Amino acid sequence: MRVCIIVEGCYPYVTGGVSSWVHGLIQSFPKVEFVLQTIISAREQSGKFVYKLPENVTEVHELYLQDVDWDRNRKGWHKYELNRQECAALRSLVLNRQVDWDTLFELFRNKRVSLDKLLMGEDFLKIVREYYDLHYSQLVFSDFLWTMRSVYLPLLFTLKMKLPKADLYHCVATGYAGVLGSMGKSLYGGRLLISEHGIYTREREEELLRAEWIKGAYKNVWIDQFRKMSTLAYERADLVTSLYEHARELQIELGCPVEKTMVTPNGVSVDHLQNLPGKTKEDEGKFNIGAILRVTPIKDVKTMIQAFSFAKEREPRLKLWIMGPCDEEKEYANECFEQVEALELEDVVFTGRIDIKDYLGRMDVTILTSISEGQPLTILESYAARVPVIATDVGNCFGLIYGESDDFGAGGILTHIMNVEEIAQAMVDMARNEPMRLQMGESGYKRVMSGYRIEHMRAKYRGIYEDFADSLDVWLECMDEG
């Protein structure tokens, strides 16, 4: 079976929970051929991998959503006059009616359409004008038209992508990845599996609502775009997985048929995180708080640093280890460095990229102050090492700390997002109550052993892949007989 893994903005270019999951999944099935279809912002990122690809990855294809060189100087690409069916399909997409995706897939696969000429052409102008008159006539039309062009250009890049042929398209999100997977199923007859770690549509909504680069009603235009892409993925998927029950409920709420949904929790290698090196002379007299993360805005490192400064005034033993890459959002990382200097904080260490096995055994507690998460691997890894956690109430953090369906007890302390005082108090409480902290570490260990081992995850996906392979064989036999 040939599996095309479709990923957006993560593996193999950056580290993190989703990237680690993809890498582990591919390694778990060495006899399966995997093809990578990656979605990144620009050509400048091409080939800049931070993972060594497993041997069973045979091809890597890249889609650039901000590809300014796409349309230029291509012989044979021209202004294409849409026929009635194609124009109706484009209209259904823009007006968010019952979208005729199959006509759009065929149009951009088989016709040498200039995207520049299409978006600047009369057909697109008329359709946008109709949409504007129906919903956004209070806005300046010229601004609205250029916004619509910027909204649709990355989607048209996606539809124009020459997708590799595969038996199974496995998308690690909806969005643009889901569009590619749906297109692969439509064009080549493969099956479609969606594995959401966060709920893509909700995450994009949250980002857009906070964004300063887009104002007012234009936020709604972008949100609608992401919703219609997710709707396509849910409609075309054969199976849609999520990491925990509440995420599955959100998928259903967003229109995914309930019979397609399945919960497949994350898993970590517990054996890999046993007998770790313990504290060193450097750690004497210190209470180590470890943050295993990428230094990016979504992890809200600034709130963590502020909370640490308050906590350290009350408990001088505290030491904060921020462990992970600082080069993905360099401007934000520099702001974090400057914040530490401005607060004149001692005992804050930025390690950069690390092997967590070298540090996790030295930590008394780990911390996560994210404003958005799915089911964080860093919590499960901490539990595997019997280290309790402090985490904000995002994603599945509540379920991981207090348990979904067990009575092991709390594996840490849950706080509200961006609540500096709560987070600071949690640090102090952990440092001053050793029996509580040790009990939380044991509770977390029992929880990860009961339902979040890598073996559990592999077994789930082995079953899923085998089911798809069996159904594919049946389908091929039927085709041969026909």
Question: Could you walk me through the main structural features you see in this protein, from its secondary elements to its overall organization?
Answer:
It is a single chain. The protein has 482 residues and is α/β, with parallel strands linked by helices. It folds into 3 domains: 1-69 and 163-267 and 454-482, Glycogen Phosphorylase B (Rossmann fold, 3-Layer(aba) Sandwich); 75-98 and 107-151, no CATH class; 271-451, Rossmann fold (3-Layer(aba) Sandwich). It is 47% helix and 14% strand. The chain has 17 helices and 13 strands. A 7-stranded parallel β-sheet has the order 3-2-1-4-5-6-7, covered by helices on one side. The protein has a 6-stranded parallel β-sheet with strand order 10-9-8-11-12-13, sandwiched between helices. β6 (239-242), α10 and β7 (261-263) form a beta-alpha-beta unit. The protein is globular, with a radius of gyration of 24 Å.
